[in-house]
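Protocol step 4 of 6.
Sequence for Selenocysteine-specific elongation factor (Photobacterium aquimaris) entered exactly as in the expression construct, tag removed. Do not edit the line below.
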Amino acid sequence: MAVTPTQYQAVVGLAGHVDHGKTALIEALTGMITARPHEQQLGMTQDLGFAHFQDDHGNTIGVVDVPGHERYLRNMVAGVWHLNVLLLVVAADEGWMPMTTSHLDVAHAMGIEDIVVCINKRDKVSAEQLAEIEDQVLEQVMERSGLLPEIVTVSALKKDNIEALRQLLIDTVQVNIARHKVIASANNDEIAVLESATDPLMYIDRVFVVNGIGTVLTGTLAQGRLAIGDKVRCHPSNLIGTVRSIQAYHQQLTSVSATCRVAVNIKGVGRKDIGRGQLITGINQQITLRDQCIVRLTKTATKLKVKKQRQVEVAMGTWHGTARLSYIPNTELARLVFEKPIPLLFGQRLAMIQKGGSGLQHGAEVVWTDYIFGYQKRRLYDVLNNLPQQLQPQSQRQMLLVLQGYFECADADFKACEQQTYIAPFCFDSQWLADMSHQIETLLGAGIAMASAELCSRLRINDAVIELIMQRLKQQDKVHLSYGKWCIGQGDNEDDLPQDALNILHQIRQFGKAGLELNKVKVVGGKKWLRQLSHQKYITALDENIYFDMGIYLDLVKAVIADHQPHDRITMTDIKDRTGLSRKYSIPLANRMEKDGWVKRDNDERIILKAWH
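Step 5 output, structure tokens:
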């Protein structure tokens, strides 16, 4: 089972029924006592305890001791949310217990694939009894998880066979790490792992203040790397701090990599501002804060027969809180609605526990966090329900390609696969991009100019995606932008104007029918750009102080002319009513229309000179 030793860091978690000897086992294995004084007096671990040991090559393996009592099941989730290996402890003189089942179920629900079973207190039973316990344990683990565990028997108090346990843990950790390296390598050959894979990810399990140092956060660094001087962000508080010092396994370090138990001194974050359950990430990582999500159920309690809406407690990382659970019919999906927005990650494992109780109701993994339009729901549920059994980073991208035709990827080194087109920061399914481009050309080819916002609404596509597609079509001379709307074919493109001119044009369009009045608004660049934009007919001056966007002006002209024919007469009251403008603006509008040859003044009336086409 041994693997060629390499540099690595790993974390093992101990779980099992109360008083089955987990804390004593850790002391025998590491020489460290994880129980706090009050826990030693109770004879029961209440919260997470931490220790570590090293293999023969100097690699450090962290050890997390999780509570065995049912009241602390949520703390148990906090301890196993990111482990390389679970060590499930069973006392030989008591055998498999209800909380052993609960701990195994939670660990399996949280995605732990490598389980070692340690039968402790073997000195208290006969060889025949020990063999019976081994059979019982093997049967329970295989039945409940489908995994075939390695089993070792020891006596922690007598330090009997501890070295065999130690070596078995080392071998299992090395196999776990080697397997995940193979998976990561395969992912790189396909679509590449998520760009955030090297960014830090750590749920906080403790926060305290050290005199002369400041706020210290502890947790398991599950992903990426932390170094002194790094900026980090806390979610959901959105606080930003700087890493001032790092300690791992009683050593001061300048940097640390996953997977590792770590204590980090953060400058700029106060003890009262953050707490257990918050998520620490790199400052630029894209983390979704949502008050609801869709999850895929991976494990369901056998006694849970009726799938109806209910309140549940959700444990995720070191966070736990309540949520409303609603099942999505005819799928293995469910919706969770939380009391307030929390950070959510694709593929993140979570456990749902009976509210106020200790029984695991479901294990699940997050598969969707965005808003869902009504027309999307059925197709979305079909796609989510057919995701691969083992979610990988590329699973989310493949899902988005099937569902919407594109996904976002800000990685500068990203390389699109065959049948994909990358236009930073989006990667498109090439066929979807061709079909959508053709659909846009067909829409505009009908003679109707459309703004980007109109196209977004009509095609139900992200505005940033529409902009990329339109710019691509513009470069191919298939469309051009005129008066804020896209038109078919070649032509002058207003978005090619200098930035100062574009800023003024945007400013005028924001005023709409109110117009831009020079005596009320400061214009960057002054009249130089106003004259240039007027000359290019992007805007028009009703008089020397009032400017309208040309598109708005033409809409007003159309409203005035409407169904009139040449030689028809209209009054200023007609113009005011048809345009909805005040007299202050309707008179300058009529004068502008006269200059442009639309009407001719005859005393208090205007004579139509040409019809609207």
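Step 6, annotate. The two ends are 83 Å apart (CA to CA).
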